[in-house]
Amino acid sequence: MNDLICQQCQNTYPLSAPVWRCECGGLLDIRFKARFDRERISAREPTLWRYREALPISSDACITTFGEGYTPLIPVTVAGRSILVKQDQLFPTGSYKDRGAAMLISKAAEIGITHVVEDSSGNAGCAIAAYCARAGISCDIYVPEDTSDAKLAQIRHYGAELHRIPGPREATARAALEAAETTYYASHSWNPFFFHGTKTFAFEVCEQLGWQAPDSVVVPVGNGTLLLGCAIGFGELRAAGVIEAVPKLIGVQSSGCAPLAAAHSAGSSQAQPIQTTPTLAEGIAIAEPARGADILTAIRDSGGHFVCVEEDEIADALRSMGRQGLYVEPTAAATIAGVQTYCASAPVEEKIVTVCTGTGLKSTEKMLKLLKGAP
Ligand SMILES: Cc1ncc(COP(=O)(O)O)c(C=O)c1O
Ligand SMILES: [Zn+2]
User: Which of 23, 34, 154, 262 is 20 to 30 A from residue 304's alpha carbon, by CA?
Assistant: First the structure.
């Protein structure tokens, strides 16, 4: 039962098919039985590839890697509590998107893809461009015009063809979708292999806690690549009998762009059309998430919910991270602000895990602006 299946018409494709969505236009999911041999895993290198039997890649020769993953899980003080925080800003391109890119581009190499397109607020573009460079695959990356210079430089540095699209983030997504009519779409929202990379976050957390699940996991939600990765990853660990239950998944959105938090509150199973306002957390400013319904289901099934964070809370969380020696980008600080809010209602005995998703080194202009306005 290793295949791709359409959410809409249940049509199936082999995992080797060069498709990123169904012929009917539906979203594809991967059906795959993950296995965990803890002894073999612990004897391997500390990278995300140590979960080899849980990753839907056939050929070791096609694995495209910089030795990424198995990031530290360290205690950080948030809201006066000790919270375990995955250091995913330490990935080779500076964000957790490398989890998804490593898997997706390894798969693309395995099935003979030579050219891909991707759209991004910046970090996913950097990740796809880097792994494509390593795999010898050419790529076109579409980004919003106001993407930071550091991310633009990084994408170009890897040899990708860069397209800067005026207008809102949705205009960039539309431009990439159009290009994807004729090219393999290495999309972090559409392509299901990306999520089978981000799921390694769950495997690492579980192993780092002595093969136990935490009580709750707080993650950012724009397109929900990490949130859905957690749902898949913890779901596979439960199905394999490694853990008893999927932790509560808490999704963090910026109040300036919170279509899924609004839908959750309204009891709706689809993202709500919303008015957006500019936010420091550009990485999660996604008004029309392709997998919105999946994200809502994952949060609900886990017994979790959303928290929305305000701009001043993001700035405060960013400062607090700095005072503890962590240089993260504002989108990553939004998650920490979300933990702060969540802690107000979370029982004290709850074991909470969260994540720093991206490095501050790519957001110098924003960081300088915030420092100017700092008390
Ligand atoms: C640093 C950072 N954190 C979080 C996210 C949110 O990821 P997603 O849109 O997959 O939910 C992004 C997305 O670009 C990001 O760059
Ligand atoms: Zn279909």
Answer: 34
Whether residue 203 is found in the same domain as residue 350: yes
Expressed in angstroms and rounded, the spacing between residue 5 Cα and the centre of ligand 2 is 8
Residues 22 and 160 in one domain: no
Residues with CB under 6 A from ligand 1: 95, 121, 123-124, 188, 220-226, 283-284, 286, 329, 331-332, 357-358
Distance CA 357, CA 127 (A): 13
Same domain, yes or no: 25 and 107: no
CA of 31 to the centre of ligand 2 (A): 15
- For residues 170-179, average pLDDT: 94
- Show the domain range for 27: 3-51
In a domain, 64, yes or no: no
pTM over 0.70: yes
Atom of ligand 1 nearest to the CA of 121: 14
State the first-to-last Cα distance of the chain, in angstroms, to the nearest integer: 58
Q: Which of 154, 169, 221, 223 to mutate to test the pocket of ligand 1 (most atoms within 8 A of CB)?
A: 223
Please indicate, yes or no, whether residues 39 and 84 belong to a single structural domain of this protein.
no
Same domain, 83 and 105: no
Calculate what percentage of the chain has a pLDDT beyond 90.
96
| Residue 227 alpha carbon, nearest atom of ligand 1 | 11
Ligand 1 pocket test target in 253, 331, 356 with most atoms within 8 Å of CB: 331
164 and 308 housed in the same domain: no
Query: DSSP labels for 42-57?
Result: HTS-SSGGGGGGGS--
- Asked whether the beta carbons of 252 and 357 are under 8 A apart, the reply is no
Query: From ligand 1's centre to the CA of 1, what distance in Å?
Result: 31
Among candidate residues 155, 175, 192, the one where a domain is terminated: 192
Same domain, 239 and 222: yes
Q: How far apart are CA 101 and CA 95, in angstroms?
A: 11
Q: How many folded domains does the chain comprise?
A: 3
219 and 299, same domain (yes or no) = yes
Q: Is the pLDDT of residue 2 over 70?
A: yes
Ligand nearest 4 Cα, by number? Answer: 2
375 pLDDT band (50/70/90 cuts)?
low
Q: Which whole number is the average pLDDT over 179-194?
A: 96
Measured CA to CA in angstroms, residue 172 lies from 96, 98, 169, 298, 323 at distances of 21, 21, 5, 27, 35
